[in-house]
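Researcher: Next entry in the queue.
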Amino acid sequence: RSVGKQNNERLEFLGDSVLGSIISRELFQRFPSIDEGQLSRLRSHLVRGQTLAKLAKEIQLSEQLILGQGELKSGGFRRESIQADAFEAILGAIFLDSDYLTVNRVILKLYKELLDQANPEESHKDFKTQLQEALQKRGSDLPQYDLIETSGKDHNAVFSVQCSLTNENIQVEKSAKSIKRAEQACAEALLEKLSML
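Model: Structure for this entry, 197 residues:
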């Protein structure tokens, strides 16, 4: 990230756009009868930072990252946001070095299992809504979302959000390229924690 940072950010921008386009087209073709809202929620789940970081781990991308000393000391190669950004940059580089059809094949191969598991019926409620309903069933207070940090430049900012459940004495922190995505990631993590209580 710190080596050729500006170039990486440009590649991330390109990779993000190409990924969104290819996943959108694939979902459109796979699910001809679902509406725009469901398509959008499915796509959001597939292109969010946590999913990208998971795929980056599967291809052991972190082992190829060149990081500055500060990032290395803080365990930067394990951070989801860095892995997700690197994954997008790789897709952008593949697109530039080859063509749309090639990057399309790469993305669909990497995403095969996730696309095969995609279920529109489970996409009708976002994670914040699911969390709210789960807490109401338990008689717990609603979650508190707080923006605790914004890093990076305006066009490539990363937002860190903390979500707290006071009744359950649980809190999580997640980062993403929008506040909304970070809140959704927090809600998903809290749903997982609640399911284990």
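Model: The longest helix spans residues 5-30.
Researcher: Noted, moving on.
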